[in-house]
Specification:
single chain, Rossmann fold, 9 helices, 23% strand, binds S-adenosylmethionine
């Protein structure tokens, strides 16, 4: 039986859980404002990592406000499939409402930190601004699960916050927002996302770049071995945890 994680109820009821949250936040201008005008750029950077034309089986880990999923579907090849998971029925209902029905797309209520899919089920997975909202243990589990359900040679695309440069004009404001509204987000200013990867898994970092003065990061990881068999392969540019 799935339940709503305590961290979500406690810290993000106002953003995702409350029925009025969807009414309030599902506005592209507001989502863009929250990202200081960078929404389209970050969305496109994420989708570009999946391809101009997206093939195979894609997993989107958690719904998002805005048109990320609709744009992802626009890029899907005819035989491609997409599974979007979220723990909140209200978010899945909102996504169903704002995207046209498509037999290639499945929406499913799942916990990102305990996915029901078998090992190696997907060719690529996308996490857009999810990890900074999770407490450390859940963040670690979520990364582990995403890597587990990817086939070796698949791709995990992550877009999230990153420590901005010291002079960044938004730094004080964002520190304040994190302090009062986003209790786990500062972790991503202190640690690299790779610090939360499971031990015993080998991944290749295909890309790591930052945007908007370092405030955001795009990380693309390729699992080089199945998490299940725990064999550590050491490619020259692999990151072993
Ligand atoms: C992807 S994140 C943040 C996205 C971004 N701020 C936006 O909406 O534009 C928000 C979503 O993550 C979901 N979420 C949080 N923890 C989750 C978990 N453990 N499993 C599945 N979904 C989760 C929330 O229910 C919410 O719909």
């Amino acid at each position: 039986m799935l339940s709503i994680p305590a961290y979500l109820e406690k810290n993000y009821w106002w953003a995702y859980v409350h029925p009025r949250a969807v009414q309030l936040f599902e506005r592209e201008w507001l989502v863009n404002l929250i990202l200081f005008g960078n929404y389209n750029r970050l969305r496109n950077l994420a989708l570009d990592q999946l391809g101009a034309s997206i093939h195979g089986k894609t997993l989107q880990v958690a719904c998002v406000y805005g048109n990320l999923t609709a744009r992802l579907i626009d890029r899907m090849a005819p035989a491609a499939t997409l599974k979007v998971i979220d723990i909140l029925p209200i978010q899945l209902a909102n996504l169903a409402h704002k995207t046209a029905a498509d037999p290639r797309v499945a929406l499913s209520r799942c916990d990102a930190s305990a996915l029901p899919d078998p090992d190696g089920s997907f060719d690529q997975a996308l996490m857009f601004f999810l990890l900074h909202e999770q407490p450390e243990a859940t963040r670690r589990q979520t990364l582990q699960e995403a890597l587990r359900v990817l086939r070796p040679g698949g791709k995990l695309v992550i877009v999230d916050y990153h420590r901005p440069r010291a002079w960044h004009p938004m730094r004080p404001l964002l520190s304040l927002i994190f302090k009062h509204l986003e209790p786990f987000a500062m972790d991503l200013w202190v640690h690299g996302i790779k610090d939360y990867l499971p031990r015993g898994v080998s991944v290749t970092q295909l890309k790591h770049s930052t945007a908007f003065g370092g405030l955001y990061q795009i990380l693309v990881l390729e699992p080089t071995a199945s998490l299940r068999n725990e064999t550590l392969f050491c490619a020259s540019n692999s990151v072993s945890k």
